[in-house]
Amino acid sequence: MKHWLMALATVVLTGCGDMPEQSSNRVLPWAESQELVVLVQNGPTTLYVDAEGNYAGLEYDLVTRFAVANGLKVRFIVTSSYAELLSRLKGNEAHFAVGVQKGFESEGLAFGPAYQSIEPVLIYPSNKTASSVLAELSAGQASISTLPQYAMALNKLKVNKPNLSWQVVEDGDSEDLIERVANGQLSYAMVDSHAADVAQNYFPKVAISREMGSAQQLAWAAPEADSELFTLFQGFFSKMAQSGEMRSLLDRYYGHVNRLGQMDAMAFLDKRKATLPRYKKWFKEAEAKTGLDWRLVAALSYQESMWDPEAVSMSGVRGMMMLTNDTAERLGVNRLDPYQSIQGGARYIQTMKDSLAENITEPDRTWLALAAYNVGLGHLLDARALAVKLGKNPDSWVDVKTTLPLLRNPQYFKSAKYGYARGGEPVIFVERLRTYYDILVRFESPVQNTMPVLSENIVVQNPNNLPLNINNRVLAAKQVRTAAL
């Protein structure tokens, strides 16, 4: 079962038209077919359907950019496990596979440049201490469940810990193992650090130990050294690094995942069950009026007031959406009335979005608008202007969140139109809100299901009928023939 970060659509994507789904097909040379066939596992770092009903994922973004840059079509084939991915790659059923850990070169695979580092981490119940768990494992009193790609790291550990034992789960994924530890079905698990950081927000009763091995590099792998393809790999990743686009993509998927502590995540999950039901219909009404995802409005309301209609701050903002008196008057709402506060707050977010330059795309547009909601539109405009001066992209949240904190520095705020601002606060505000939103997207149903738009140049095949959406815990998956950008 796959269930990953930010997803709204409830689809299971299957093969495209009359394209063969048999796993025994060898691919034609890409230079001949003008199509790249790419093996991928779905997950928060690879490919999934996001809250807007679009394909997303770091690997999806990278591969589609690579294909466009080289004038090629791309066909993703979603595999059910890492073992299947490697097996099919060695059988020449694809031109390359993504998100593969370097170290399998001896198995007949060649690798492109490394573009990301992860580390194997140990997942254990948070009511235990890391030292007691490590001692238990070293004594051979318990075993670790893991995936095939982490067996090498465990073999290295076994040199100094001869009693260490583990079992490899061939057909699972990292989140499956994390969830089973959280539910008490497994004692311990070894997974990758990125998956652990993301899933810990959903399963705060697990803890992470980073003492299980050194960093491992991810790269694109091919069954043989296609010199032309690997030359294209080198040029592509070099340009991505030089332009800063790689940094932006990494921030999009990981920049906010460590903002919540264990107690914060647990409190939010508890209030989602106890408090959110009272106001859910009003958040959904706000979506009907503004078009904003009701879960985003709800996440904002929690970040502002923890869904407390009587909340008040030292600066005088009040109510569910923490509106100032002036803002409430302009919106024509009673900020102490929870219904009116929610509707007014949603309209105010939309006003902030409408005030930004039309060329700013999503999701940056939303994150910038939420920063303006917190710190004021004037200060956000100052931060964007400062980004231009510093040679950064004023339309990118990853760049503007580095200039907002500078508005506390006299060197910068003296020349800013709107002067001094506590610019670090909106950065924390938005990043925490993004995590609350991710959690709601995972556990709460959307008002309306959406599916990715079809494309002639990008196809996703899902022969095993894996659910590619995140919130499949609350909605049954539906089958469609294809979907793409």
UniProtKB/TrEMBL annotation:
PROSITE patterns: PROKAR_LIPOPROTEIN, TRANSGLYCOSYLASE. Its main location: membrane. Keywords: Cell outer membrane, Lyase, Membrane, Signal. It is found in: Cell outer membrane. Its EC number is 4.2.2.-. InterPro entries: Lysozyme-like_dom_sf, Solute-binding_3/MltF_N, Transglyc_AS, Transglycosylase_SLT_dom_1. Residues 35-257 form the Solute-binding protein family 3/N-terminal domain. Signal peptide: none annotated. One of its GO terms (molecular function) is lyase activity. It is a peripheral membrane protein. It is an enzyme of class 4 (lyase). Belongs to the transglycosylase Slt family. This is Membrane-bound lytic murein transglycosylase MltF. The lineage of its organism: Bacteria, Pseudomonadati, Pseudomonadota, Betaproteobacteria, Neisseriales.
